[in-house]
Design a protein that fits this description.
CATH class of the largest domain: Alpha Beta
Number of strands: 12
Distance between the termini: 44 Å
Number of helices: 15
Number of domains: 2
Bound molecules: adenosine-5'-triphosphate, magnesium ion
Largest sheet: 5 strands, parallel
Shape: elongated
Strand content: 15-25%
Length: 368
């Protein structure tokens, strides 16, 4: 019985997925969990001897963006024949947990964690949550105890994260209080790394136009499509893409109007029309694997500052192998035809051309 591997294999045969050894290993781990589940819990003998539910070993999938973690979790959720089951985004899960804790407190039942764990366990024997991140002490403490209780109840947990367990809540306040939770994950879940060379999401950039001319509704629509394709953002949430205040050193920040899954959207004005410099651009290049810039105008001699900043920006993006999608009023070669530094601008033109190439697009962020 290997429901996950079978489903994975079918997608491979159908040509919907490309073979990936890390993914195959992960699918096998999820099948092992499926077997654990099938042999746990309700056995007559276990009941006879009044044993608690057998422990099942969950799976912790971690790796870089676009490696297929969510895809595999979905396969597991769809094909592991356990009921009841629940798949939830980690943020939604934590909101739900806080609500349950509040209710338990209102009912005055003492320590809220055991009853909350019990109610969650009653609703899901297989609990999948996507994108575990922990960024405050309160959540860290709650999770630590809740997880222990859930695992003791025999709940099969599948979770994904961009970090290995040992890096969860990295640099967090009072992290030492969190360390037992990391031990717990490492002991009670099978930790599976999914870090093959391919970011399948970026792969989809293949054949996508990266430099749109001219600025206008058509270019905007195409870039917006690319943005959502790259981030897998739910259609219903598209009106509220998160923004970010990026720290750029020296206590300064840069407002990123759209920031999601390592993809940022900026206007040329914001990036090069204000007093910005190498430190800002470096911070952007380190933080984002893909940058979308809209509204790049043709620059004239009066725009020498903008042109100089644009050169510095492209240097930083290029050095860090950041993917660039843009809307501009001209092809790179015609962007800054005359003005101070127009000769040096040729290097930028050449880099911009290279950044459109399939080879450049296939390289990983930060490589080289
Ligand atoms: N082996 C593969 N061949 C082709 N496409 C794949 C493969 N694996 C995953 N994909 C596709 O790549 C995209 C990204 O995968 P997925 O969303 O699962 O990544 P992820 O690891 O969860 O990334 P993130 O950390 O950003 O959430 C999905 O559309 C998925 O269907
Ligand atoms: Mg994912």
């Amino acid at each position: 019985m290997s429901p996950v591997l079978d489903a994975y294999q079918q997608l491979l045969s159908a040509g919907e997925l490309r073979p990936d050894p890390d993914q195959r290993r992960a699918a096998a781990a999820l099948d092992r969990l499926s077997l654990d589940l099938a042999s746990s819990g309700g056995g007559v003998l276990r009941k006879l001897f009044r044993k608690g539910p057998k422990r099942v070993r969950g799976v912790y999938l971690w790796g870089g963006v676009g490696r297929g973690k969510s895809m595999l979790m979905d396969l597991a959720f769809d094909h592991i024949p356990t009921e009841p089951k629940r798949r939830v985004h980690f943020h939604a899960f934590m909101l739900d947990v806080h609500q349950r804790i509040r209710r338990a407190r209102e009912e005055g039942r003492g320590d809220p964690i055991p009853p909350v764990a019990e109610s969650i366990a009653a609703e899901a024997k297989l609990l999948c949550f996507d994108e575990m991140v922990i960024n405050n002490t309160a959540d860290a403490m709650i999770l630590s105890r809740l997880f222990t209780a859930l695992l003791d109840e025999g709940v099969a947990v599948v979770t994904t994260s961009n970090r290995p367990p040992c890096d969860l809540y990295k640099d967090g306040l009072n992290r030492e209080l969190f360390l037992p939770f990391i031990d717990l994950i490492e002991q009670r879940l099978q930790v599976v790394e999914l870090n093959g060379p391919t970011d399948y999401r970026l792969d989809r950039l293949e054949g996508v136009t990266t430099w749109h001319v001219p600025n206008g509704p058509q270019a905007t629509a195409a870039l917006s499509r690319a943005f959502f394709q790259l981030t897998d953002y739910p259609v219903e949430d598209r009106a509220k893409v998160p923004s970010e205040e990026l720290e750029v050193g020296g206590g300064r920040t840069l407002h990123v109007p759209k920031s999601l899954k390592g993809v940022a959207v900026f206007s040329f004005k914001r990036l090069c029309g204000e007093a910005r410099g190498a430190a800002d651009y470096l911070a952007i290049a380190q933080r984002f694997h893909t940058v979308i810039i809209v509204g790049i105008p043709v620059l004239g001699p009066e725009n020498r500052n903008e042109a100089a900043r644009f050169v510095t920006l492209i240097d930083a993006l290029y050095e860090h192998k950041v993917k660039l999608l843009a809307a501009a009023d001209a092809e790179p070669a015609l962007l800054y035809p005359a003005g101070h530094g127009a000769f040096e601008f040729q290097r930028t033109v050449s880099r911009l051309e290279e950044m459109r190439s399939a080879d450049y697009l296939a390289e990983g962020h930060g490589a080289g």
